[in-house]
Specification:
five-stranded parallel sheet, Nucleoside 2-deoxyribosyltransferase
Length: about 150
Amino acid sequence: MKVYVAGPVADAATVRAVQSEVVAAGHELTLDWTSDLSFSESFASMPDRSAQMAQDEISAVLKADAVLVIASQHDGRGMFVELGAALARAEVGTLDHVVVVGPIQHESVFYFHPKVRRVQTVGEWLEQVGLGSHGAATDCGPQTVDNTRR
C-alpha cells in the first residue's frame, strides 16, 4: 500500500516514527517531506521552491492508497490542506483510508468527517485493515474524543 503521512512540521519526529512503522510493515511512502526541513518557514521568500513543495505534497496525497494525519499538541497548517485533499478523494470514492492518528488536541470538524477513521496508534490502524505491524506500535498517546461536537 502507498501511504502519505501528514503532520505538523513541529512534530516531524512523530511523523518519522509513524513513517518508519508503515515502511517496516511493508508499505511504501508516497513522499517523505521530513527528509528536508531546512525550508519550513518564510515561504514567500522562495516562491518557486514553495510552489514545488506544494505540488509535491498534493501529488503525494493523490498517489496514496492511505493518508494518515498525525494529531499533535502542535498546530499544523499544511496538514489540514492535505487532509482536505484526502477527504475530497474519499468523497468521490478514490480513497478508502483517511486516518487521524493519536489524541486529538487541536480539534477540527474534519477529524469527525464520516470518512475519517480515528486511532490511537498507526499499529492499531494497520491491524484494523489487516496489514499487520512488524514491530512495536508507535504510541501517539491515549485518545479522548468527544464525538458529539461538530
